[in-house]
Structures are given as structure tokens and as C-alpha cells.
Amino acid sequence: MEPRQASLEGNHPLRQRAVTGVALAAIALGALVAGGVWFLLLVAAVAAGASFELARLLESRRTPRHRLALLLAAATVAATVSVHRFGLLGGIAVLIGIAALAAVVRAGFGERPWPAALAAVYLGLPLSLLLWLRQWNPEGDWLTLWLLAVVAATDIGGYTIGRTLGGPRLAPRLSPGKTWSGLLGAVLFASATGGGIALWLHGAALPPVAGATGLAAVLALVAQAGDLVESWLKRRAGFKDSGRLLPGHGGLLDRFDGLLFATPVYALFVALTSAGRAS
């Protein structure tokens, strides 16, 4: 009985992870296709929820944690709403202003001011750029779909190949579960996904297949760096997961940590290539 029970318990988190992943993909795809206020609501909800998780990792004392969470939520949600209404520059201006105000408020309570400002940028800038990609670019739906698919493939490849092959640890001091085989799997899955979508959507606002494959590989590496940074924050705070909102995955930060790092790099690429085509 014991081996049978252990086997069932071992498969349970994997089933939870798969079910949650499918549900998240369906929600994200629906909001992405609908665009407009629906995509804004999704991004704002992630911003608010992730703010409370990040505050939990940065502050050990309960009262400052809640105060920091509210400040981060205000900064990130206001920034995304501003991007939706006024564009990227307006959103960034609002983000910087509220982040600075949050730091002043923290200092007024005798608390460290820098976590509020840095954390607001850590969350608010990538999410603002994600909204800008979808709402303010021609064929922004395809551009954003490509990014989300590549980051998802990075997570799937890293998790699947890492668990299957194991091997030497990638960065044991930051994340004891990450392996070099997982990193290779992440890059391979992301490259195949990025190139495959570019081939399928030939003529859309995406790079050629070879360029999309190479860009996806770079984004996979950047996303894995984001995963390691969040793992370091969790180890520093003494938590295994950033939260419990997503069964099988942990919290919102656990699910979107790679996207937070990959989005600015991808947005910069889109901005530069768009400027090149315009000139």
C-alpha cells in the first residue's frame, strides 16, 4: 500500500499543475483575443495579486508588509491603467511618480524606502510594457501571443527536461531545483515554439523564422534569470512559494517571474524593429 500511495501523492502535484496551467492559458488567451479593457483587467489583477506576494517576500513584519503591498498595488495598477489610457510614456510617468511617493511614505513611517520604489519598478514596468505590446502596436495580439507562448514553452521545457534528466545544479545557492539540463530544455522548447509560430504566422508582425528562433532562445535565457531572481527572493524570505493562489504552481510570482524579465527585452526589440521599419 505504501508504494502505491506514494505514487499517487507524487502524481497529484503534476495533475494540479497541468489543470491550473490549462485554466491560466484559457483565461490569458480569452483576454488577449478580446483586448481592450479585458486585457487591462487581467494585467491589473496580476499586478495587484503579485504586489501582495512580493511584499510578503520583502517584509517579515506583518504591518509593514500590508502597507508595502498596498503601495505596490496602487503603483502597478495605476501604471497599467495609465498605459491603457495614455500610452507607455504616461504609464511610466505615473509609475515613477507613485513609486517615489511610496518611498516617501515608507520613510515617513520609519521604514526602508527603497523596497517600495524598486519593487514597484520590478512589477510595474514589465506589466506596463506587456499592456503596451497588446494595446498600442499593430498586430499587438500576435506579438503578445508569441511572447506568452515562448515564455510558457520555457517553463514547460525547463520543468519537463529538468525533472526527466536531472544532472548538475544550475545555481544551487539561488534555486536548488534548477539544473543545466532544465536550462537546455527551456531554450530548446522556447526556440522551437518561437520559430514554429513565426512559420505558422508568416507575414504577421514577427521576425523571420530564423530570427524568431534566435530571439526566443535569448528570451528563454532571460526568463530563466527572472526565475532565479524570484527563487533568491523566496530563499531569502524563507518561503518555498510566493503564494498559494495557483494549485501546483504556487503564487502569481511563481508563474510570471520569467515573464517579468522577458517582457522588457522583447518590448525593446519590438520598439527598435518598429522604428526601423518606419524609417
TL;DR of this structure?
By secondary structure, the chain is mainly alpha-helical. It has helices spanning 2-34, 36-58, 62-86, 88-108, 114-135, 140-165, 180-200, 209-237, 252-278, and strands at residues 169-171, 175-179.
Overall description:
The protein contains nine helices and two strands; from the N terminus they run H-H-H-H-H-H-E-E-H-H-H. It is mostly helical and 279 residues long. It has two domains: 35-136, no CATH class; 138-279, no CATH class. A hairpin with a 3-residue loop joins strand 1 and strand 2 (175-179). The model is unreliable at 1-10 (pLDDT under 50).
Structural class: mainly alpha
Determine the mean pLDDT: 88
Shape: globular
Kindly state the percentage of residues in helix. over 70%
* Terminal-residue CA separation: 70 Å
% residues in beta strands: under 5%
Number of domains: 2
Mind telling me the C-alpha Rg?
19 Å
- Count of alpha/pi helices: 9
Low-confidence residue ranges: 1-10
Which structural traits does this protein have?
mainly alpha, 3% strand, two-stranded antiparallel ribbon, 2 domains, 9 helices, 2 strands, 279 residues, disordered N terminus
Secondary structure elements and pairings:
Blueprint: H1 2-34, H2 36-58, H3 62-86, H4 88-108, H5 114-135, H6 140-165, E1 169-171, E2 175-179, H7 180-200, H8 209-237, H9 252-278
Antiparallel strand pairs: 1-2
Helix pairs in contact: 1-2, 2-3, 2-5, 3-4, 3-5, 4-5, 5-6, 5-9, 6-7, 6-8, 6-9, 7-8, 8-9
